[in-house]
Amino acid sequence: MLLTKRRRTESTRSNAPAPTKRTESTLNPNGLLELLPLAPEPLRSEIWFDDGNIIVQAENTQFRLFKGALCSSSDVFKDLVEDMADLTAEDGCPLLLLSDSAVELTYVLRTIFHRWSYPPNQPLAFDVIAAFLRLGRKYEIKPLYDDALARLGAVFPPSLSQYVDSKMMDHIQFPDPEDPNRRGQIVVDTIILARELGIPSLLPAAFWFTCTRLESLANKHTSAIFEADRDVILLAAKPLSIAYASYLFGWLDETPANCSQPAVCTNTKLKYSLKQWKPPGSAMTLYWRSSAENGLCRTCVAAGQKHHSEGAKRLWTELPAFFNLPPWAEMLANAPGV
After folding, report:
1. Positions in the chain whose pLDDT score sits under 70
2. What is the three-class DSSP state of 198?
3. How far is residue 51's CA from residue 68's CA, in Å, rounded to a whole number?
């Protein structure tokens, strides 16, 4: 739902800082001259055009831009610029004060004024994706918001096939590719961001990842997850692992009637079961492992693949319920947009 012009302007500028006033001295209550520290000079951003005709400031960083390009990117920016009659002039340009993070605003303005900053189909840093989601929604920049949501949605999707085939590194750039906790940190950041912006469809896959790596909850970064979400993950871990073992690997406890080597296959399945999947959840992957075929007849392999495939689909369909979330269809139907 689009905001009205008045509501847009008020919501965007409600927390904007007041124009900076640099004062060198003042009189104290006793009438004596008192020296005060100068307020810091605003920093000039990398996005600065000497012939620009508007200055935008976020925190202590200023951007000298072109009104036309800024307004054409967002109706919210357009409304703000049109309502600037009472705003301070700076260096001969009107000054628009915003309440956003200077770093996040830089990411967004790069897409408008430095379009080559983010090549298409290349992974982006999580902080950039988060900025696109936050400010893309706030300023109603739909292409920016949709692209960011698609990137996270590809890593934490509603579709099982997408989840199995997706590689996080294809969509999200790791700050440190050698960090053993690099994936876990992105999962934690995604959970926090999904809660902040009300995008629950990202949560089941993120919670699943955490349930399969419970040791990640001991990571220092997970303290930022809401306590309620940590409780949900811990409470879901055991029933989820039991369902996983039953849905995907119940075939290990069965022998088809037309098995060509019942004794051999039964013994082989028992070994696999004890080694790989018991206790339940000790190897929670959703793709078929070809190593499970070793020593089995073709009939047992085919039966195992069918059981595994159907079980994985069932588990993914039921996944939101393990975390007290609505069904996939409901979350997607109610997904926020721009």
Report:
1. 1-39, 85-88, 215-224, 276-283
2. coil
3. 13
Percent of the chain with pLDDT over 70: 82
Q: Is residue 227 part of a domain?
A: yes
Residue 275 lies in a domain: yes
Helix H or strand E segment including 187: helix 182-197
Judge whether 22 lies within some domain.
no
Q: Give the predicted TM-score (pTM) of the model.
A: 0.82
Which range marks the domain in which residue 68 is found? 5-15+40-101
Cα 124 from chain centroid? 11
Residue 107 lies in a domain: no
How many structural domains does the chain have? 3
Residue type for position 237: A
Whether residue 143 sits in one domain with residue 230:
yes
